[in-house]
Amino acid sequence: MKTETIIRLLTISALAGLLGAVGLRLTLKQVTDSLRKCRFLPILFANFVVVPALAVAAARLLGVGRETTIAMVLLAAAPFAPVVPVFARLARADLALAAGLTTVFPVLSAFLTPIVCELALKTVADAGAIRFDLFGVLLTLVATITLPLGVGMLIHHQRPTLGQRLLRPVEVVSEAVGALSLAFVTATELGAILQTGWQSLLAMGLVAELSLGLGYWLGGGPAGSRQVVALGTSNRNIALALLVAVQSFAGTPVMSAVVANGLLLILLGLAHVAYWRFGRKPV
Fold first, then answer.
1. Residues 6+ apart with CB under 8 A from 161
2. Neighbours of 191 (CB within 10 A)
3. Are 84 and 238 in contact (CB under 8 A)?
4. pTM over the 0.85 mark
5. CA distance 47 to 257
6. What are the residue ranges spanned by the domains of the chain?
7. Cα separation of 111 and 245, whole Å?
8. Angle, CA 83 vertex, CA 229 and CA 68 arms, to 5°
9. For labelling alongside 265, which of 52, 139, 186, 276 has CA 20 to 30 A away?
10. 11-23 per-position pLDDT tens digit
């Protein structure tokens, strides 16, 4: 079995399990109520306009190469990683808001991400054109994010006792598969990751931290809501960025740069989750 196939199977299994477990904790009303209370339009503008602009600016400022700049743009144009609800649960943030935004943003991304990439990459010399399979991306995002969340919430609503019994086993198995997936990707892509260069990682880290602060400010309301928007704005959808990279930049260093920078975002996200859970409480 090819390495790419193993990574895809592990990632899809982990995401489906983790998001299904989030759904088992929530009702549809909790999710819709949280979405109504959030500042959706400013959050949308920040994620599809401000963060990609930050990525281009940081890449230019630190002299990042063409392929890595493209990878940064692909990540910047793919907001709200599927791990955001998991991070929100670990940080004890607003889980309903995390589930709602993580469900809505991938659907919007299927339409807006190619437009944002096309515009942002016009600033990158010889970046090439974006090829984007809209139906394939929508199907992948729905299958890995929307469907597991929906099934979990349906079980929680229709069979609450069964939902309680399933919750812990699903969480344990999916978290173990997620850890295995991350370790496998890191091991198989280690050589390419080490070749990415410190400028790229520094630039992506700078974008992530600025995006985190922007999201926390936009979140408004209680700390739990601010944490969710901060985590979603700083943690980009690696799977979506890789889909675009495969379709438009196959066989180039863009793919390994997406993986390297994506892993950095996960590590930074985990660091913030640990700080919010075990360190000083946010205000």
1. none
2. 8
3. no
4. no
5. 21
6. 3-278
7. 16
8. 85
9. 139
10. 777 777 777 887 7
